[in-house]
Write a structure and sequence with these properties.
This protein is of the alpha+beta class. It has one domain (5-186). The chain contains 5 helices and 8 strands; from the N terminus they run βααβαββαββββα. The protein has an 8-stranded antiparallel sheet with strand order 3-4-2-5-6-7-1-8. A hairpin with a 5-residue loop joins strand 5 and strand 6 (146-151).
Length: 187
C-alpha cells in the first residue's frame, strides 16, 4: 500500500446527540449494541464481497507476555478449515519495551462471524462479556481496503484513494473523510 491513504470515519451509534455519552447509553441500553452491530455489519458487508479473500489481524499490547489464544472469543469466530490459515508473531518494541502479540488469519469473508467479532469489540470498553481486548483489523487482499472498528463508536475504512473506497449505504452517518498515514493504525 502507498505511504498515504484516504479514509472515511463512520459513526455506528444512533444519531441522537442531545444526551451526553453515559446518559445516552443508559437511555438506549436495550437497543444500543444491536444498533451498533447492525451498522458495523452493514459497512463490513458493503466493503467486502462474501467470497473475497481477506486477512484479519489481531494485535495485543502489554508490558507482560500476554497471548492471543485460539480459545479466545475473537479467534473462536473464525471457521477454520483447509482454506483458512493462521499465524502468530511476537515482538518487543525497543523504545518502550512493550510486547506486541499478533495473530493473522487469512480466508474468505464467509469464514468470519463478523457480527460476533463486532459485538466483542463493542463490549470491550464496557467490560461486558463476550469481549475482544485485541485490536482487530480486516484487510482486503484484492482491493487494498482496510476496515477497522475501533470501538462501539465507529469504523475507519482506508484505501489508497477516495475513488477506491467502497460505495457505502446512504443511511450511514459519515463523520468525515481524511488523509491518513497507514502507520497511524497499522504499525
Amino acid at each position: 500500500m502507498k505511504n498515504t491513504q484516504f479514509a472515511v470515519r463512520l459513526e455506528l451509534r444512533p444519531t441522537d446527540r442531545n444526551l451526553d455519552e453515559y446518559d445516552y447509553i443508559q437511555a438506549v441500553k436495550p437497543n444500543y449494541f444491536p444498533t451498533v452491530i447492525d451498522a458495523a455489519s452493514l459497512v463490513f458487508e458493503s466493503t467486502f464481497a462474501p467470497d473475497e479473500a481477506i486477512a484479519m489481524l489481531c494485535r495485543r499490547w502489554g508490558s507482560k507476555r500476554t497471548h492471543i489464544r485460539t480459545s479466545g472469543f475473537g479467534l473462536k469466530q473464525v471457521q477454520f478449515d483447509q482454506d483458512v490459515s493462521l499465524s502468530f508473531k511476537k515482538r518487543k518494541t525497543k523504545e518502550r519495551g512493550i510486547w506486541i502479540r499478533e495473530a493473522l488469519v487469512l480466508g474468505d469473508r464467509r469464514k468470519f462471524n463478523h457480527r460476533n467479532i463486532f459485538l466483542g469489540i463493542a463490549h470491550a470498553d464496557f467490560n461486558i462479556q463476550p469481549m475482544i481486548r485485541e485490536w482487530v483489523v480486516f484487510v482486503s487482499l484484492q482491493k487494498e481496503l482496510v476496515y477497522f472498528m475501533y470501538d462501539d463508536r465507529g469504523v475507519l475504512i482506508a484505501s489508497p484513494s477516495k475513488e477506491t473506497l467502497p460505495t457505502l449505504p446512504e443511511n450511514l452517518n459519515i463523520l468525515r473523510y481524511e488523509d491518513i498515514r497507514p502507520s497511524e493504525f497499522l504499525l
